[in-house]
């Protein structure tokens, strides 16, 4: 009878613990089946200063498009070990960098404003400038990001930097790229660190609640840093383990020193 009571109580405690664990780990708990939730306005990834873009201008007549696709080069002075300045050349086919003012320099037509615009918007602007300038009547422009990344850190299975190949990505998709959160990740306090116009802003998102869909950081931008904080229990256990290792090391050192001293005393008698 006593064993039966113990088993019964244990099963109840185990069930309560399981329910508590579910509440701490399941995403979007307040959404029922087939529920429609309004999300933040869909946002495409916008071009920022210092983004590197691959710009290709095409036409039925490839010779007309050639001047807009020339290889760009620049010379830079470098100091060699002897202290003398030498000139080196760097070339990049159709890869152009947005300047600090958010402008992109294109051959023939000059600067094109692109900060805060999508790839499609900038492509349309370049094509319009070429057509309006009378250079190519059927100009078409394709723009790709040369390197577009975001970063996921903290309590995820695979933290690191990730390449983005689409114009739109959500925080849930970014976490999926990082192998999802570990069981120790704090799903109520996920930070998205974003730098815009020289200002760094941190957005806090609670992924257990559908309110996350309305966050301005639900749709990510290039260069965003997603940080998953550890739960308090995880942080505390890590500190305990660290302190335990410290005291084990100290104790081991003291025992070794005491043994050495004892050996020396016995040998001197």
Descriptive account of the structure:
With 269 residues, the protein is α+β, with helices and mostly antiparallel strands. Among the domains are: 52-145, wza like domain (wza like fold), CATH 3.30.1950.10; 148-230, Outer membrane lipoprotein wza domain like (Outer membrane lipoprotein wza fold like, Roll). It contains five helices and twelve strands. The strands form four sheets. It has a five-stranded mixed β-sheet with strand order 9-8-12-10-11. A three-stranded antiparallel β-sheet has the order 4-1-7, covered by helices on one side. Strands 2-3 form a two-stranded antiparallel ribbon. A hairpin with a 5-residue loop joins strand 8 and strand 9. The longest helix is centred in the last third of the chain and has 37 residues, at 232-268. It is elongated.
């Amino acid at each position: 009878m006593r064993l039966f009571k113990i088993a019964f109580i244990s099963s109840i405690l185990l069930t309560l613990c399981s329910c508590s664990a579910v509440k701490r780990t399941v995403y979007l708990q307040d959404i029922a089946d087939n529920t429609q939730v309004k999300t933040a306005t869909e946002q495409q990834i916008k071009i920022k200063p210092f983004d590197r873009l691959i710009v290709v201008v095409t036409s039925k007549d490839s010779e007309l498009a050639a001047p807009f696709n020339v290889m760009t080069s620049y010379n830079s002075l470098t100091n060699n070990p002897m202290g003398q300045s030498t000139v080196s050349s760097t070339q990049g086919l159709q890869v152009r960098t947005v300047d600090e003012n958010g402008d992109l320099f294109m051959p023939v037509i000059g600067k094109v404003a692109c900060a805060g615009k999508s790839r499609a918007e900038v492509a349309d602007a370049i094509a319009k400038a070429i057509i309006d300038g009378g250079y190519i009547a059927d100009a078409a422009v394709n723009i790709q990001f040369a390197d577009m990344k975001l970063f996921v850190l903290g309590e995820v299975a695979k933290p690191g930097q990730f390449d983005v190949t689409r114009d739109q990505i959500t925080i849930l998709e970014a976490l999926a790229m990082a192998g999802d959160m570990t069981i120790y990740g704090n799903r109520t306090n996920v930070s998205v660190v974003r730098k815009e116009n020289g200002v760094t802003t941190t957005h806090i998102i609670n992924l257990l609640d559908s309110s996350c869909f309305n966050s301005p950081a639900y749709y990510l931008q290039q260069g965003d840093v997603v940080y998953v904080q550890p739960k308090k229990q995880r942080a505390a256990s890590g500190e305990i383990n660290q302190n335990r290792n410290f005291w084990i090391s100290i104790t081991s050192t003291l025992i070794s020193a005491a043994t050495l001293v004892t050996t020396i005393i016995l040998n001197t008698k």
